[in-house]
Amino acid sequence: MKHELSSMKAFVILAESSSFNNAAKLLNITQPALTRRIKKMEEDLHIQLFERTTRKVTLTKAGKRLLPEARELIKKFDETLFNIRDMNAYHRGMVTLACIPTAGNDSNLLIVFYVQIMPDDFVMQLHRF
Fold it and tell me: Coiled coil: which residue ranges (predicted)?
């Protein structure tokens, strides 16, 4: 059984808005597209997630159980993407350290500290004077 993250987001937004029309607007999709997405999700799970009336939708017992899990899944996914993108922006460039031979021992501590913090990003260029 495969559910796209977009279906989980649609489920959460619908649960929070209690209206297919309002949720569709928030998702920037049509109301029939949202209805199909939720219906497909319910069919795949073999369980009804929402009670529908002409005025609003409410969560079933199964929907209430799924909601916190869906929120956590979306949160974790968004955090993961943020962290991956942040890694790319954070670790850029190169550090070049030059020192005279007598200062080498003190600079070694700095190099060891840096390697411990960012071992995958360490590039060393040694310049002797």
Answer: none
Q: What's the pTM value of the predicted model, to 2 decimals? A: 0.65
C-alpha angle with apex 50: 75 to 37, nearest 5 degrees? 65
Q: At what angle do helices 5-17 and 61-90 cross, to 10 degrees?
A: 120
**Ordered domains of the chain (ranges, CATH):** 5-90 (1.10.10.10), 97-128 (no CATH)
pLDDT digits (tens, 9 = 90+) for 16-28: 999 999 999 999 9
CB burial of 28-42 (b: ≥16 within 10 Å; e: otherwise) equals eeeeeebeebbeebb
Helices (H), 1-129: 5-17, 20-27, 31-45, 61-90, 104-117
